[in-house]
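Long-time lurker, first post. I've been practising inverse folding by hand and with some scripts of my own, and I keep getting stuck on stretches where the structure tokens seem ambiguous. Below is the full token string for one chain I'm working on. Before anyone asks, I'm not after the true native sequence, just a reasonable design that respects the backbone. If someone could post their per-position residues I'd love to compare against what I wrote down in my notebook.
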């Protein structure tokens, strides 16, 4: 598009009569066109920031609702667990089941907090990618593929955040038959938690890969500033989504 603007300038320069006033008009028109072009291509980062701010606010609302729902469910869950524990005659086993239940709830919370931090990191990385893409566009580079990749990453992040909010409200009831089946009964609840966390994990991983694809797509554009960092292959906040 930038090259087309330059070509258009030369066409007008050759077609119009020579003269100081005419050249001034052409120069002014060209500067206006270039300025308009720069404003147009610089919208990638601005649009991304607007969309992600809307996403962040929506995610916050979803998380607030999920936490409220979780508190209600936890109250019901604890009462139900106490009823189930009465089926166990061994006091040590009762304590063990109670501890396992607490550990499961804590694991769910910690894992989701970690995934949330990973997604926040990806948003920061994508913002940098959008900024670099804008700079490349002002030099005449075609960044349409980068914009598409950024949009795909944004959608993936939204999907992962929705999965986190949904998982936040979940509790895992342990249904106990008797002492002889206790290990299997507890195992069912554990496996259910692990299966649900795996679903969230895959959503976060998809967002990570989408952001990485955006960085790779940007890197394929000539004249991109190499000094600016892109998405890391592995960091403390992203290594567990591989």
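-- Answer (accepted) --
I ran through it position by position. Result:
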């Amino acid at each position: 598009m930038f090259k087309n603007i330059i070509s258009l300038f030369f066409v007008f320069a050759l077609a119009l009569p020579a003269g100081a006033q005419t050249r001034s008009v052409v120069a002014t028109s060209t500067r206006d066109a270039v300025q308009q072009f720069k404003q147009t291509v610089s919208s990638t980062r601005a649009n991304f920031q607007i969309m992600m701010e809307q996403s962040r606010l929506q995610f916050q609302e979803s998380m607030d609702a999920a936490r409220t729902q979780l508190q209600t469910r936890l109250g019901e869950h604890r009462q139900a667990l106490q009823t189930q524990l009465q089926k166990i005659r061994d006091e040590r086993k009762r304590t063990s089941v109670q501890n396992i239940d607490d550990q499961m709830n804590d694991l769910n919370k910690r894992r989701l907090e970690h995934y949330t931090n990973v997604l926040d990191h990806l948003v920061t990385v994508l913002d940098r990618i959008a900024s670099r893409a804008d700079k490349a566009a002002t030099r005449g580079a075609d960044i349409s593929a980068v914009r598409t990749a950024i949009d795909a990453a944004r959608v993936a992040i939204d999907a992962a955040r929705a999965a986190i909010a949904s998982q936040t409200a979940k509790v895992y009831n342990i249904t106990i038959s008797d002492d002889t089946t206790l290990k299997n009964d507890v195992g069912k609840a554990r496996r259910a938690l692990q299966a649900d966390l795996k679903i969230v994990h895959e959503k976060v991983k998809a967002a990570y890969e989408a952001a990485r694809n955006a960085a790779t797509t940007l890197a394929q554009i000539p004249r991109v500033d190499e000094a600016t960092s892109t998405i890391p292959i592995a960091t403390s906040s992203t290594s567990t989504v591989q």
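A couple of notes from the structure itself: The two ends are 38 Å apart (CA to CA). The CA atoms of residues 48 and 200 lie 24 Å apart. Happy to go over any region you disagree with.
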